[in-house]
Design goal:
77% helix; 79 residues; single chain; mainly alpha
């Protein structure tokens, strides 16, 4: 029930110009992150200077699947 309510609220917000712009930008940013970092997640996770970027993406991005997919087989290397 909560999911339906949340989707309804999101649907109503899309029709307000400012909210639609914000939602579109959020989706665009996530898409850019996915395209930019795909294939480099494991390498960035191992690097002490850039591992924080992966950590931040795991906290902030809605779609974390592309990150998890890349590190899933390498958990022992990263621990």
């Amino acid at each position: 029930m909560k999911i339906i309510s949340a989707l309804g609220a999101l649907y109503r917000r899309i029709f307000r110009t400012q909210d639609a712009y914000m939602i579109n930008n959020a989706l665009l940013v996530e898409n850019i992150y996915q395209q930019s970092f795909r294939g480099f997640i494991l390498k960035l996770s191992k690097d002490p200077n850039s591992s924080h970027v992966i950590q931040r993406m795991l906290v902030t991005l809605k779609n974390k699947y592309f990150i998890i997919k890349e590190i899933l087989g390498h958990v022992s290397e990263l621990s």
